[in-house]
Design brief:
This protein is an alpha+beta fold and 165 residues long. The protein has one domain: SCP2 sterol-binding domain (Nonspecific Lipid-transfer Protein, Chain A, 2-Layer Sandwich). Helices cover 46% and strands 17% of the residues. The chain has eight helices and five strands; from the N terminus they run H-H-H-H-E-E-E-E-H-H-E-H-H. The protein has a five-stranded mixed β-sheet with strand order 3-2-1-4-5. Strand 1 and strand 2 form a beta hairpin. The longest helix has 15 residues. Keywords: Ubiquinone biosynthesis. Pathway: Cofactor biosynthesis; ubiquinone biosynthesis. It holds the Pfam family SCP2.
C-alpha cells in the first residue's frame, strides 16, 4: 500500500509545512462542521461578521455603482447539499446578509468557491466544468458571475482547512 505524498506549503519551513499537511489530511472534511455551525448562528450575528468585510472588499465597485443592478435582489451562495450557505442582497447601496432563499442560487463545493475567491481559475471554467452551477434566475446569477469576473478583488483562504473538499 503506497502512502500519498504530502503537498508542500512552499512559503513555510519544511517541518511546519509537513506538520500542517499531516494535520490537514487527518482532519475531517469541513463541510459537515460548517453546516452544524451555520445552523446555530443567528442571522444578526452572520450579518455582523460578514457584511462589513464584504462591503470593504467591494467598496470601490459599490461606490462606482457596479452593483446597482442587484438592488433589492437576493442571491444565495450554497455549498453542495444545501447547507451551509449564505443569501445576500443589495439594499441602499450596501451588501446585506439575508435570511431565506435567493432568486438565484450559485451552488458548488467549498473548494470551487475557494478557487473562485482566490481567482486561481477563470470563473467560466468553474461553470463550464459544472464545479459551480446556477439555479433559479440564471440571468441574475450570470450577471453576478460576470461582475465578479470584471472586478479587481482577491481573497486568500487558509489552505489547511479547504484542501480536502
Amino acid at each position: 500500500m503506497s502512502h500519498p505524498t504530502l503537498p508542500a506549503f512552499p512559503s513555510l519551513p519544511p517541518l511546519l509545512s509537513q506538520s500542517l499537511a499531516v494535520l490537514r489530511d487527518s482532519l475531517p472534511a469541513p463541510a459537515p462542521l460548517l453546516r452544524t455551525i451555520d445552523q446555530h448562528i443567528p442571522i444578526p450575528l452572520k450579518q455582523l461578521l460578514a457584511e462589513a468585510p464584504l462591503n470593504r472588499l467591494f467598496a470601490q465597485a459599490l461606490a462606482d455603482g457596479e452593483f446597482e443592478m442587484f438592488e433589492g435582489r437576493r442571491i444565495r451562495l450554497e455549498i453542495n447539499g444545501g447547507q451551509p450557505g449564505v443569501t445576500f442582497g443589495l439594499w441602499a447601496g450596501r451588501l446585506r446578509i439575508l435570511d431565506g432563499p435567493g432568486e438565484a442560487t450559485i451552488r458548488g463545493s467549498l473548494s470551487a468557491f475557494k478557487t473562485l475567491a482566490e481567482r486561481r481559475l477563470d470563473p467560466d471554467q468553474l461553470f463550464f466544468h459544472r464545479r459551480l452551477v446556477i439555479e433559479g434566475d440564471t440571468e441574475l446569477g450570470l450577471a453576478l458571475k460576470n461582475l465578479l469576473d470584471s472586478l479587481e478583488w482577491r481573497i486568500r483562504l487558509p489552505q489547511i482547512f479547504l484542501h480536502r473538499i
